[in-house]
Write a structure and sequence with these properties.
The chain is α+β, with helices and mostly antiparallel strands. It has helices at about 80-100, 100-120, 150-165, and strands at about 1-5, 15, 25, 35, 40, 60, 70-75, 125-130, 135. It has 2 domains: about 1-75 and about 125-165, no CATH class; about 80-120. The protein contains 3 helices and 9 strands. A 5-stranded antiparallel sheet has the order 2-1-9-8-7, with no helix packed on it. Helix 1 (about 80-100) packs antiparallel against helix 2. It is elongated. It binds zinc ion (2 copies). One zinc ion (ZN) binds near residues 68, 131 and 134.
């Protein structure tokens, strides 16, 4: 399982491979240690038998970085690549269309759409934490696709926390 998270100390994006075999996450930039919740990875298989760490995909119960239990699964598909393929296909079809080559035009349009679909189908799923945005690759879990309502809930929670932080602690009275 590969984890990509934002370091709580320095804010840089940290990627950790084989995270399930490590006792804690260490920031490669500032060295800050993020303790992983020990119960976040399910150690038992679907039949209740103990699942060995490193065999198959580890099952996540919740986020390892924050206590959030809400994650969403989505295809690990780089959106820019998908858009890039479509744009390249459109540009190429414009050239053939200008030369009145009807069959190549439709072949290019159909081909680029097909490439997008095939790429999408073969892309692995990636889990993302609603609360802290940590991404998990090579992990399974009982999580559904993206839900806008849950996302909005966490966004408002974050905004509230940020508002409280900017107000800061009450100033101590000066004698
Ligand atoms: Zn750091
Ligand atoms: Zn999280």
């Amino acid at each position: 399982m590969r984890i990509t998270y934002a370091c709580t100390a320095c804010g840089s994006t940290v990627t950790v491979n084989d995270a399930e075999t490590k006792p804690s996450l260490v920031c490669s930039r500032c060295g800050a240690v993020t303790e992983m919740a020990t119960d976040a990875i399910a150690r038992s298989g679907p039949g209740g038998e103990p699942a060995e760490v490193g065999v198959g995909e580890p099952r996540l119960r919740r986020c390892l970085v924050c206590p959030c239990t809400e994650l969403f699964a989505r295809k690990d598909f780089p959106q820019r690549l998908g858009v890039g393929i479509v744009v390249a296909g459109l540009a190429a079809s414009c050239v053939t269309w200008a030369q009145r080559l009807l069959v190549p035009t439709f072949a290019i349009l159909f081909g680029t759409a097909l490439v997008d679909v095939i790429l999408y189908l073969f892309m692995p799923e990636c889990l993302t934490c609603y609360r802290c945005g940590t991404r998990y690759r090579g992990a399974a879990g009982p999580f559904e696709g993206f839900d806008l309502e849950t996302h909005e809930k966490h966004r408002q929670q974050r905004a509230r926390l940020a508002g409280q932080a900017s107000v800061g602690p009450p100033a101590s009275p000066t004698p």
